[in-house]
Amino acid sequence: MRRVGLIGAGGIVRRTHAIGYAALPGAVEVLAVADPAAASRDAAGEQFGIAAGQRYADYRDLLARAPVDTVVIATPHAYHVAQAVAAAEAGKAIVSEKPMAVTLEEADAILAAVERHGVSYSVVHNCLFAAPVLGARALLESGAAGEVLLGRGEMLGNKPVATTTPERDWRASRAMGGGAVIDSAYHEIYTVEALMGSPVRAVSAHLATLKFPIDVDDTALLTFEHANGRVSSVAAAWHARSPGLRGRWVWLNGTEGAVRVVYSDAAPLSRQTGGARDWEPVDATALPGVPAPIPGDATGHGAYLRAAFDALERGAPPPVGGVQARHNLAIIEAARASSAARRAVEVAA
Fold first, then answer.
1. Which end of the chain, N or C, is less surrounded by CB atoms within 10 Å?
2. What is the pLDDT of residue 245?
3. SS3 state of residue 113
């Protein structure tokens, strides 16, 4: 059994990560929590049955005192590097929310600490474990769309002006590592790349702050060149909605058809073949290799945690390791550099 300490006890832990813990009875026990906000750590403490003496304001106290072998980091982006390095130095296995860090220099510091101390390190790329995306990958690998030529992804949201401020939302702050490209487009970047079946090697991007009085981007438009010569694009915005494609979606077009995932749809996975004008719903779990989803796990967080803890128990490589997560961050850094230079930028190795 993995003995887990939570570093960060915000909504993502109490709403989505909790689904994974509930699905792993006898495999995972949450024994400690650290969060500077007393209300958050006590809410998590009550939810997970954590003893009062194992609820810490400072994550360093958790690392020093809690009887845990694994920590799950779910804090604002800017804190990830210090917390991950400290956890590695304490000999704890690490599961970190995305992104692994804010810069490639920070990511490299984490990778060095993990290697130096010989601990497992995993980053939550949850959408890859959502049933519709697993189904989309199965369809594409079966040749349902022919040769994949073009990919697209989008995450559109309409944030309230009153709360989209650095004081009310850390994601709206450069100092905290926020912004639309690293917070919202992040998932579509790795999902589109995975479904394209070829790594992104160059990025052309435009990042802008169009609506909110903040010092980070609220709009991100990215175009990718893949190693196999195919192309894809990702868009994210905090001030827009698309009535026909609500929230986030990915769409892959090939020589023989297309495959689409619209997470908010009642039938999130669909395909189009030949000259058909309409989309055909597909039951992802009826496809080979796609397991039944954990009940309520629409985001794939529970399935990701299940895979991560299973890998830890077996001593196997994590489902998404640090090198893979660093590559996604390198795409984001290339997008930032491209926007600043107004030209295509190669993705750093």
1. C
2. 64
3. helix
Q: Is pLDDT of 227 > 70?
A: yes
CATH annotation of 2-123: 3.40.50.720
Is the separation of the CB atoms in 210 and 219 below 8 Å?
yes
pLDDT of residue 198 exceeding 70? yes
- Provide DSSP, 137-174: HHHHHTTTTSSEEEEEEEEE-B--TTT-STTT-GGG-T
HSE (side-chain half, CA atoms, 13 Å) at 246? 7
The answer to whether the CB of 93 falls within 8 A of the CB of 322 is: no
Instruction: Check: CB of residue 153 under 8 Å from CB of residue 259.
Output: no
Q: Which residues of 292-320 are buried (b: 16+ CB within 10 A; e: fewer)?
A: ebbeebbbbbbbbbbbbbebbeeeeebbb
DSSP state, residue 79: G
pLDDT at 156 over 80: yes
Q: Per residue in 301-337, pLDDT tens?
A: 999 999 999 999 999 999 999 999 999 999 999 999 9
What is the distance between the alpha carbons of residues 314 and 18, in angstroms, rounded to a whole number?
A: 22
Domain with CATH 3.40.50.720 in the chain: 2-123
Residue 114 near residue 88, CB atoms below 8 Å: yes
Read off the tokens for 124: 């939550």
Helix (H, G, I), strand (E, B) or coil at 271: strand
> What is the per-residue DSSP string for 181-215?
HHHTHHHHHHHHHHHHTS-EEEEEEEEE--SSSSS
Residue 244 has pLDDT above 70, yes or no: no
Q: Domain 127-291+329-341: give its CATH code.
A: 3.30.360.10
